[in-house]
Amino acid sequence: MSYNEPDAKIFACSQSLDLAQRIADSYGVKLGQVSMNTYSDGEFQPSFEESIRGIRVFLVCSTFPSSDNLMELLLMIDAAKRASARHITAVIPYFGWARQDRKDKPRVPIGAKLVAKLLETAGATRIMTMDLHADQIQGFFEKPVDHLFASTIFLPYLQSLALDNLTIASPDMGGSKRAYAYSKYLQSDVVICYKQRKKANVIEKMELIGDVTGKNVVLVDDMIDTGGTLAKAADMMIERGALSVRAICTHAILSGDAYERIENSKILELIVTDSIPLKKNSSKIRVISCAQLFADVMHMVQNNNSISGKFIM
Questions:
Q1: What SS3 class is residue 282?
Q2: How confident is the model at residue 195 (pLDDT cuts 50, 70, 90)?
Q3: H-run or E-run covering 224
């Protein structure tokens, strides 16, 4: 379907150009032109190379590390505000710093709250994101937040596999709500992994709650970082009699030895979105684009239509 709405334009931060181009193509407009002036010390200054006065701008930027991505988005929001844009929607497919959603020990920051305040102070009038690490982060904003679910694109793919004896699994207790939502839609069983950590990204102990014997298991999580949890969970489930183990993770951070860990694990397939660009290709990783989902919701927002129809669960 082709669209042509001159009162809305889409721009991208440097590290989200590929996804933004796919979103713009799906939306039906050309991706807006942004130039970047970089100083010798690494400081940078984005500049819009076309007029945005009186229109809605969608700024596409996933704020994964390094922090330059977040800083670039903040500078683009400020530039759009000073260029008299009518509405400034920050489209953040992956909302970085979301794991810092509370004080889990004394004398630590609540990073997600700080990022929310930075975005609002810079001038964002609306936030659009997908599969937040914690739903309560929406409450950190005083502006409207469109929180999209990647299940909208993952569930049709899962159904296309037509797996017998399907069981949905959560890799930890915190993800049980997501796993139950998938299982309710697919009318499948649920198992949950219970893990204890020594420290961040280091698992001390993992136990399985539920039976996976003779089951095709699909692990569901919002992100995959080092891959340690999913690899350990998959190996344990195969040992407990599972026929196969797949994993669905919205945001493919994949840091450190994650690619090697996934390749060497019993995971048959890792299904992710393109909210974060992959560092390299892998035979086990399947990418399902979220571009059409964002483009559709951006049209609904632009036309003041309800977006509730885009939520499968």
A1: coil
A2: confident
A3: strand 216-224
Please list the active-site residues: 195
User: Which tens digit of pLDDT belongs to each residue from 115-149?
Assistant: 999 999 999 999 999 999 999 999 999 999 999 99
- Which residues lie below 8 Å from residue 107, measured CB to CB, with a gap of 6+? none
Spatial contact of 272 and 252, defined as CB atoms under 8 Å apart: yes
pLDDT for 5 beyond 80 = no
The answer to whether the CB of 175 falls within 8 A of the CB of 165 is no
Q: List, for residues 254-276, the tens digit of each pLDDT value.
A: 999 999 999 999 999 999 999 99
Helix residue ranges, H only, 28-173: 68-82, 111-122, 151-161
Place of tokens 């102070």: 121
pTM: 0.93
State pLDDT tens for residues 20-35: 999 999 999 999 999 9
Helix axes 291-302, 151-161, angle to 10 degrees: 140
Q: Cβ neighbours of residue 245 under 8 Å, at least 6 residues apart?
A: 217, 218, 219, 233, 234, 237, 238, 266, 267, 268
- pLDDT tens-digit map of 38-70: 999 999 999 999 999 999 999 999 999 999 999
CA pair distance 74, 81, nearest whole angstrom: 11
Cβ atoms of 70 and 277 within 8 Å: the answer is no
270 Cβ contact partners less than 8 Å away, ≥ 6 residues apart: 224, 230, 246, 247, 249, 252, 262, 282, 284, 285, 286
Tally the residues of the chain. 313
Strand bridging mode 244-252 / 166-170? unpaired
Which stretches of the chain are DSSP H helices?
17-27, 68-82, 111-122, 151-161, 176-186, 228-239, 258-263, 291-302
